[in-house]
Amino acid sequence: MKDLMGRLRLSLRRIGGVSRKELVELVRQPAMLFVLVVGPLLILLLFGSGVRAEDPAVRSIFVTPPGDEQLAEVVRGYADSQSERLTILDVTDDREDAMRELRGRRVDVVVVFPENPIEAVEQNDRATIEVIHSFIDPLESQAIRLFTRGAVSDLNDILLSRAVEEAQTQAATTLEEVEGLRETLDGPAGSVLMAQSDTDPEDLAIVLDDASIELEQLIEIDPDVVAAPLDGRASSIGGRVTTSQFYAPAVVALILQHLTLTFVALARSRERELGTVELFGVSPLREVERIAGQAVAYVLSGSALAAVLLAAVSLLLGAPFRAGVGTVALVVVAELLASIGVGLLLSRVARTTTQVVQGAMLILLLSVFFGGLLLSPERLLPWAQPIGDVLPMSHALELLRDSMLRGLPLAAGPIATLVGMAVDTIAIGSWLAIREEHRG
């Protein structure tokens, strides 16, 4: 029994020694504790404080029928009342010009008002307001549908109010005329006027018949159509996109960026820890050649991974390639090169493999929150949007969604930024590596 208790005490003492050693190691690495604890909390704090409390205003153009000034006046009044939700860039009668602005991504929504809505009501049918947008995010599309319903309801109220006001004015005028005629006919001059009247009874009958027909048409109109003469229909120029298809490019861009920069940084850090850098220093191999060889290797391996991922999202999720496979491949290569450059910079900041993993995880968190995976950049405050601009994924994601889901050609701004990021990061990383080699 004593031997058993002795062995137990020794075992507990050894366990305590190991625990104490691990705690001391943690205390001796305050930088690691800071990165592991404060880093994620800081990212969450930035994200929480950088999200807009309200939806951003949508850039819009209202299109009215040519020559219908009365409807255009109603639309302008409604546009002024929606300044908080919409940024009205123009109220025009040129539909083709408005659609060019929409396809060029210079506006988000084009609202087209119908021609001759009164004729549609007379035919017992509602006139349709078209709301055409460029959003492919299912949440944004749902918001546009809700906006369409609200806009139709508001405009119906405006038109109904104006119609009632005009009817009351017309009725008051008619009543005054009738009262005046009645007083005239009831007076001494009434019999003289009747005797001198040359009005044909048949003409009076025609007038009465026309009035009866108009009254019958008014009675036959559905009261619901009279109360709500307008209807709405929302559509997207990018076609219908499911939730899984919308997030597929984001997942592909995130995986490619994270794996590429992590593998590059780990490879460079491992060479430094194993002493391979010193061997390369005395060999004919130059640092630039070594970086070029690594870049080629990771572009090839990343391209193979991208092919597998894109094939999976296409076959399993039905993600389209509306702008062609070649356009998507160009974006993938540009993102891989930019991620290689970020990996080179990370390997210069992080001196050990542990620090590389920690840094890669922080970049992953930044990409999830600020790279466009959870929320579009427009839903972030202006000061928070530049955080995502330094990530290759954010620019690649915009290009992939345009090419895959919208079928648009590559936008000059994002592709130039992505290529410039690749050139700058690889150049800076190579320069730092060459400088360290010369110092060694």
TrEMBL record:
Q: What is its main location?
A: membrane
Q: Which residues form the ABC transmembrane type-2 domain?
A: 206-436
Q: How does it sit in the membrane?
A: Multi-pass membrane protein
Keywords annotated in UniProt = Cell membrane, Membrane, Transmembrane, Transmembrane helix, Transport
InterPro entries according to UniProt: ABC-2_transporter_component (IPR051449), ABC2_TM (IPR013525), ABC2_TM_bact-type (IPR047817)
Presence of keyword Transport: yes
Matches recorded under PROSITE patterns: ABC_TM2
Query: Which GO molecular function annotations are given, in alphabetical order?
Result: ABC-type transporter activity
Intracellular or extracellular location(s): Cell membrane
User: Where does the chain cross the membrane?
Assistant: 246-266, 295-317, 323-347, 359-376, 410-434
Any one GO cellular component localisation term in the record:
plasma membrane
Note the Pfam families from the entry. Answer: ABC2_membrane_3
Asked whether the keyword Cell membrane is assigned, the reply is yes
User: Family assignment?
Assistant: Belongs to the ABC-2 integral membrane protein family.
Q: What is the protein name given in its UniProt record? A: ABC-type multidrug transport system, permease component
**Native species:** Euzebya pacifica
